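User: Purine permease, Alicycliphilus denitrificans:
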Amino acid sequence: MNTHSLSCAHAAPRPEDENLGLGANLAYGLQHVLTMYGGIVAVPLIVAEAAGMPASDTGLLITACLFMGGVATLLQTLGIPFFGSRLPLVQGVSFAGVATMVSILQTGGGMQGILGAVMASAVLGLLIAPVFSKVTRFFPPLVNGCVITVIGLSLIPVAAHWAMGGNARAADYGSMGNIALAGIALVTVLVLSKLGNAAISRLSILLSIVIGTLVAALLGKADFSQVAQGAWFAIPAPLHFGWPVFNAAAILSMFIVILVILVETSADVLAVGDIVGTRVDSRRLGDGLRADMLSSIVAPLFGSFTQSAFAQNVGLVAVTGVKSRFVVAYSGLILIALGVLPVMGRVVACVPPSVLGGAGLVLFGTVAASGIRTLSKVDYQNNMNLIVVATSVGAGLIPVVAPRFYAQFPDWFATIFHSGISATALVAIVLNLLFNHFKRGNSDQQSVFVAASDRTLSAHVLASLYDGDVVIDGKLYDKNGRLVPVAGAHAH
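Assistant: Predicted structure for Purine permease:
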C-alpha cells in the first residue's frame, strides 16, 4: 500500500508538464511572442544600423534572429539529453551583447568578427557551464528575490520607452496620444483580469494588445500597408554574412558577455522555477545553461547572436499563471514561422510600441512583485539580510537610473555591471557568502541595519540565566523564589 502511494506520488506530473491542447497552446504561445517581439528584433536592428547594412540584409538579419530564437526555445523547453531545462522559458538574442558587438564593428572586426566572437566565446561558455550549475545553493530566496525584483524594475524603463512611442527620434515621442494608447492597453489588461473568466484573464495581455492595436488603427497610429510588400517565404541562408572570423580581443570581450548571460540565465531559470513551483537542481540548471550555449554556438551560422532567456516572459508566466512549457514550445514554433515567413513578422511589427508599453508595465511590474513576494519569505530577524537586500537592489538599479555611471570604468567591469541583473546577482551572492556563510568576524553587536524582533537578549545575558528563573513585575527570581540582584542598581 505504501509502495503504491509512493509510486503514485513519484508519478505526479510537474506543473510545467501540463499540456493545454492545440488552441490554448497557440493562443498563449502567441502572447509570449508578442511580449518579446520588440526585444528580439531590437538587437539585429541596432547591429544592422551600426554596420550600415542595406534594408535587404537588415531583413535577413531580423529573420535569422527570429528563426534561431525559435530553435533555441524548442531546445530549452522540450530538451534533449544534457541540453534544456524543460521549463517555460522563451529564448532569443541577448541584449547584453549589443554594446560589445557594436564595439567590434567600430574596431574593424565587421559582421564576420562578431559571428566568430559569439561562436568561440559560446564554446568557452559551454565548457564552464557545469561550474555555474553548482551555484544553486548560493541562490537562496535572499539572493533569488533580489534578482527577480531587479529584473522587473530594470525592465520598467523599457515599458516606459515603448509607451512613449518606441522611437526617441520620432516627432511624436512621448506625446499624449502615444501614452493614451499605452493607458488603453493597461486599462484593458486590468478590466479583463477583473472579469472572473479564467480563460479571458489568462489571455488578458494578448487581448489587450489586439484591442490596443485596433484602437490605434482607428486613430491612424497603426499602419498595415507594408504587410503585403516583400517576400512571403524565405529560409535563413547559412553563412549569408560570411564565415566567422576569430579575433582574440573580440572573443575575450564577448566572453565577458557570455559570463553575464550565464549569470542572468541562471537567475531566470531559478526565477521561473520559483514562479512555476517546481524543483530546479544543479543538473537542471546546467542543462538550461548548456542549451543557451549550444544555441549561441549554432546561431552565428545563420547570422544570429548570443541566445538567452527573456526576462519579460518570466513575468508573463507570473501574470497569467500558465506554467506549461508546451505553451512556450509553441512560442518557439511561432518564432520559427516568423523566421521563414517574413509576412507574419510584418503583421506583428504593425503592433504599435505604445500598446506594448501599456501591457509591459503590468508584465514587468509583476516580475518585481514576484521578487518582493520571494523576499517576504526571508528571515530578517537578528541577522544582516536586510543590508544584503538593500545593497544588492541598490547596485542593480544604478545602471537603470544612471546609464553612464560606469562609463569611466574598465570595459570588462562596465560590461558586467552595466547589466543591473548581473550586478544584483553578483553583489547578492558575495554578500550572502560574506554574512551568512563565512560568519567568522561577524560582530555579535547587532547593526543598525538588522531587523530586530520585538525582544532581543545579548549572548552574555542569556548565559547568566539558570533553569527555573522567572520574571515577575520586572524583577528576576530564581527557581527557589529568591530575588536575583541586578548589578549597578541603586536602592530607592
